[in-house]
Specification:
- The structure is a single chain.
- The chain contains 44 helices and ten strands.
- By secondary structure, the protein is mainly alpha-helical.
- Among the domains are: 108 residues, no CATH class; 287 residues, Four Helix Bundle (Hemerythrin (Met), subunit A), CATH 1.20.120.330; 127 residues, no CATH class; 160 residues, Four Helix Bundle (Hemerythrin (Met), subunit A) (Up-down Bundle), CATH 1.20.120.
- The strands form two sheets. Strands 1, 2, 3, 4 and 5 form a five-stranded mixed β-sheet that branches. Strands 6, 7, 8, 9 and 10 form a five-stranded mixed β-sheet that branches.
- β2, α12 and β3 form a beta-alpha-beta unit.
- The protein is elongated.
Length: 1002
């Protein structure tokens, strides 16, 4: 395309990124650029963010040069592609403020030719440059500027801006790392403060008292992460000179004069503009407090008066100018208070509140464009990192870093932040800081608001190598969303509050401190517990680091549960099983609720701990509230049956069933222990697990028998639930009481059908009785006709004949809890139709049958109560125990279910409620019976959870009794109250039973 044709030039310039093509043509055709290849120059400007500004800047700098020789030198650089040209155009083509500086000091463009992104000057070299600029000797112990005040201030500004121009040229053209840019700007700020102090010393009157003065950088300057345009936060510390240690000669006045003059030297406007404001508002008492204090005065304030945010601010304190030895004394004196501040009352809450206040102060008009203060902004990263530092830094000196990215890297390396989360937050913070730098570089203005002008967004996008403003906005919003997500995950991590509340020695877990803490927390075997702790935390692995963070809090949570030693031992075993699994420790670190649930479950006794050790992957459900919801039968049974169908070997198939049962038992245990699920819900959930287990076992057994027979079963087969299984009131140690029923298909041999049905029942029982580490589910068919002497499996017709001829009242009573379990649905329906008239007789019970029920109950109590056992301690057969309540409810059912259909239920609480509705039972009596029934059931369950073994007795062992009482809901030390409450509840229930069960009128 010819550049000589007007229309072609316009299109060519527009394609290069020029917005005002007419003005660009005039500049290119002007005398200053007449001997430069326009095509080459336009192509070079097409690579900068704002070609229009760059082209105008070239003309302005050429005009400002005083000699033809200097102009020729600049034209020579502009005429050839080189790093020098790229850097010069990058500055002129983006920052109007730096272009103005080059116009005022045109020779400074020469600086841009001899730059290196790999070899930048260190802090000492930058300090020497700035001091030299004001005529001070960099090697002097106390540098003093030489010259007129006005000239010195201008010289300071020129030197400062000259350095910024060179740094910006590298940043824009060579893409310096944003952390390196921020660190160099902080070093430049320290050098500027040193030079300003030298200027202030020069203005002191002759004979002014001497003093020691240190300038402490705070905020971003202290953290070596300064912006291009920012306030510089400082604190001034002074002491009397060594020659006058008592300070009797007005040294404090001199220190205050120097501090005031230093601030003015940086902020006052001169012909060369200003540098930045120096803000000393972070000093004790803020702007109301004295500008200069001694170290002792600072320490006294922080010990007695400082607020949480002041310790957070001190985290970045760093000596940068003046008496550096004094500055280090100050830092050494205050930093121990910084790293213990997290132990203050409400520390974490205070930091949370401060972050909310920052967000609340955002002007509504800027809320959607705030890069620093708003949700997903820089402050979200900084607050999250600082809170984690302050909480965990008490025990980990690697976190003592005032730089945000350095601290984030340390937190990630130490395991306090996940690797992926750390990498995402690091990248997001770098992008946001780079974006912030670009916004500020345009006019060297202190702003954190994204412009709403499409043209400004276009220029910013080009500076970040993006083609369209929309792309920049999309990336910004995406990064902001990531920052906000991680901020909420880390900043509001529940574990932080728990760690912060630990005493100082507790968080460090030194052997001596750990032993003392273990004894204080009530561990029965502190030495054994310490061995577990050492095994978990020894070494420098990431796993050990995370466990060092978790254990101080977990120890307290274990101690709040019934069995702390069991909890710690269980945690060690689970960690050894899962410690190399990426999600395990991450879950516990990031989800305080999951960690606390795990601690409570493991320290509640053996049952849950052993379940978790057999299925450690079940830990994953602790972090998800939805995962802890008790599952319904339908989806669970579908899952199990699909798994059974995938295995031809019945042992492998039953393995699928058992894996489900382990997992679901743990789910119920967590809901019981950590969420306080009602005993009826626990019974229902355990019943569902048992039903699905039996269904899976039946499917596996049927497939095995059919494979052995070489064909399908010749009979329909079903399993009927009885006892607690049928009543949907299973406990953790309940057997599965069942009846097996079958009916041969038409034209099938009855003997063959009976043999096949028996084979399936035996195989089902065998599979469920195979040795296995998880709690067993015993299939008990003793409630069948003729008991254990009768056939295991009967036909429907056989059941009908037996019950018609031989059925006794106790068998009718047992059938009250009969319910469908698994197998052929039609056969189950027909079985229930068969037994309904028997268990709900139309005529009720005769007096003789009622006496038989009472007699059988008395015989059961006398024969089944363990010899020598105290009846009042027996939860099932003792006065007011489970049997008393259940037999009372069942007698009401047998007598009245024919006339009160609501009594036709297998549930004990359901039967009592129906009896109240039918006028057979008062609401008060129902409440007494249900309270006793629930408490007995809860104690039986709690005993299994604590000991891992079934028992119908209240524990005699004081330690076990105390643990059971805690699981039931009593506080530590209330086991005697627990026993008294049970006996009181049982006595009241027994009184109701005596009246109802033995009253002929009912």
């Amino acid at each position: 395309m010819s550049v000589n044709r007007t229309e072609g030039r316009v299109a060519w310039l527009a394609k290069a990124g020029f917005a005002d093509t007419a003005a660009a043509q005039r500049e290119l055709d002007g005398p200053l650029l007449s001997d430069i290849d326009a095509a080459d120059l336009v192509a070079a400007l097409g690579a900068v963010a704002d070609p229009d500004l760059g082209l105008r800047g070239i003309g302005r700098v050429l005009e400002s040069l005083e000699t033809d020789e200097r102009r020729a030198a600049l034209r020579a650089v502009l005429a050839a592609d080189s790093p020098h040209r790229r850097r010069l155009l990058a500055v002129l083509g983006f920052s109007s403020a730096l272009a103005d500086h080059l116009c005022r000091h045109p020779d400074h463009w020469l600086d841009l030719g001899d730059l290196s992104s790999e070899r930048r000057p260190d802090a000492g070299a930058v300090r020497a440059r700035l001091l030299t600029a004001v005529g001070a000797d960099p090697a002097a112990p106390v540098p003093v500027a030489v010259g007129e005040s006005a000239e010195l201030l201008d010289a300071l500004r020129v030197a400062y801006r000259r350095h910024v121009t060179a740094l910006a040229a590298l940043d824009l053209a060579d893409w310096l790392d944003v952390a390196a840019v921020a660190a160099e700007l902080a070093d430049l700020a320290g050098a500027t403060l040193e030079a300003a102090l030298a200027v202030a010393r020069a203005a002191l009157p002759d004979g002014a008292p001497d003093c020691r003065l240190a300038v402490i950088a705070m905020g971003k300057a202290g953290g070596r992460e300064l912006n291009y345009a920012s306030d510089v936060d400082v604190v001034f510390v002074a002491e009397p000179p060594a020659s006058d240690p008592d300070g009797s000669t007005g040294w404090l006045s001199t220190a205050t004069t120097l501090a005031t003059a230093l601030m003015r030297a940086c902020s006052v406007y001169t012909a060369e503009g200003t540098i930045w404001p120096v803000d000393a508002a972070l000093r004790p008492e803020g702007k109301r407090g004295p500008l200069v204090r001694t170290v002792a005065s600072h320490v006294a304030y922080y010990q007695d008066w400082a607020k949480t945010w002041e310790f957070q601010a001190l985290l970045k304190a760093r000596p940068v100018a003046g008496d550096l030895a004094l500055g280090q004394e100050y830092v050494d004196a205050v930093m121990p208070m910084v790293w213990t501040a997290a132990g203050r009352d409400h520390f974490v809450d205070d930091v949370h509140a401060m972050r909310r206040r920052v967000e609340d102060q955002i002007r509504p008009a800027e809320a959607d464009r705030q890069l620093k203060l708003g949700p997903g902004g820089l402050r979200d990263v900084e607050f999250a990192v600082q809170l984690l530092q302050l909480v965990h830094g008490r025990a980990d000196v690697s976190l003592h870093d005032g730089n945000t990215l350095g601290a984030l890297a340390a937190l990630t390396a130490g395991g306090y932040v996940g690797r992926e989360d750390g990498a995402v937050m690091d990248a997001a913070y770098r992008f946001l800081r780079t974006f912030e730098h670009r916004i500020q570089l345009r006019g060297l203005r202190r702003t954190h608001v994204v412009p709403d002008s499409d043209e400004q967004l276009r220029i910013l996008a080009r500076s970040l190598a993006m083609k369209q403003p929309a792309e920049l906005v999309d990336v910004w919003h995406q990064q902001a969303r990531e920052v906000r997500r991680l901020h909420e995950k880390l900043f509001y991590r529940p574990l932080l509050s728990a760690v912060a509340r630990l005493p100082g020695d507790g968080v460090r877990l030194s052997p001596e401190a750990a032993l003392a803490r273990l004894r204080a927390l009530g561990y029965a075997d502190p030495a054994g517990a310490l061995r577990h702790i050492e095994a978990l935390t020894t070494g420098v692995s990431r796993r050990a680091s995370i466990q060092k963070t978790l254990l101080p809090v977990l120890l307290g949570w274990f101690a709040d549960a019934p069995e702390p030693d069991t909890g710690l031992a269980g945690f060690r075993k689970v960690s050894e099983a899962l410690g190399t699994t990426p999600w395990y420790l991450r879950l516990l670190r990031d989800d305080g609720a999951a960690a606390e649930r795990m601690a409570r479950v493991l320290a509640s006794g053996r049952y849950a701990a052993e379940l978790l050790l057999r299925a450690p992957e079940a830990v994953s459900m602790l972090g998800d509230g939805d995962s802890l919801r008790l599952r319904e039968r339908g989806p669970l049974e579908k899952e199990v049956l699909a798994g059974v169908q995938r295995h031809d070997d019945p042992v492998d198939a039953i393995g699928v069933v058992r894996a489900m049962r382990r997992r679901e038992l743990f789910r119920v245990t967590v809901a019981d222990l950590a969420a306080g699920a009602p005993v009826e819900d626990v019974g229902e959930a355990l019943t569902v697990i048992a039903e699905v287990t039996l269904s899976g076992a039946l499917a596996a057994a049927t497939r095995a028998v059919e494979a052995a027979r070489g064909g399908p079963l010749p009979t329909r087969l079903a399993v009927v639930a009885m006892g607690r299984l049928g009543g949907r009131e299973m406990g953790y140690a309940s057997d599965a009481d069942v009846l097996f029923v079958h009916t041969p298909y038409p034209d099938e041999d009855e003997t063959e059908a009976a043999s096949a049905a028996l084979a399936v029942a035996n195989e089902m029982t065998r599979l469920l009785s195979l040795p296995s580490p998880e709690p067993s589910l015993t299939v008990d068919a003793a409630l069948r006709p003729e008991g254990k002497q009768g056939p295991l499996v009967r036909t429907l017709a056989s059941y009908a004949a037996y019950y018609d001829r031989w059925g006794e009242v106790w068998e009718r009573q047992a059938l009250l809890r009969a319910a469908p379990c698994c197998g052929d649905p039609e056969l189950l329906r027909r079985f229930l139709a068969l037994i309904d008239p028997l268990r709900w007789p139309t005529a009720g019970l005769t007096d003789t049958q009622i006496r038989d029920v009472r007699r059988i109950k008395a015989r059961v109590e006398s024969e089944r109560l363990p010899r020598g056992a105290d009846p009042s301690m027996h939860l099932k057969l003792g006065p007011g125990g489970l049997a008393d309540v259940e037999w009372t409810a069942q007698l009401l059912q047998l007598r009245h279910a024919s006339s009160a259909p609501a009594l036709r239920t297998t549930s004990t609480p359901g039967a009592l409620a129906a009896a109240v509705a039918a006028g057979l039972l008062s609401a008060d009596d129902r409440s007494v019976l249900e309270d006793s029934w629930r408490m007995s059931a809860r104690i039986r369950n709690a005993t299994v959870l604590v000991t891992g073994r079934p028992s119908d007795m209240l524990p005699k062992d004081p330690k076990t009794l105390a643990a059971v009482s805690r699981v039931v809901g009593y506080d530590a030390g209330e086991s005697a109250m627990f026993v008294d409450d049970y006996h009181r509840c049982a006595r009241k229930a027994r009184a109701v039973v005596e009246r109802l069960f033995y009253d002929d009128a009912r």
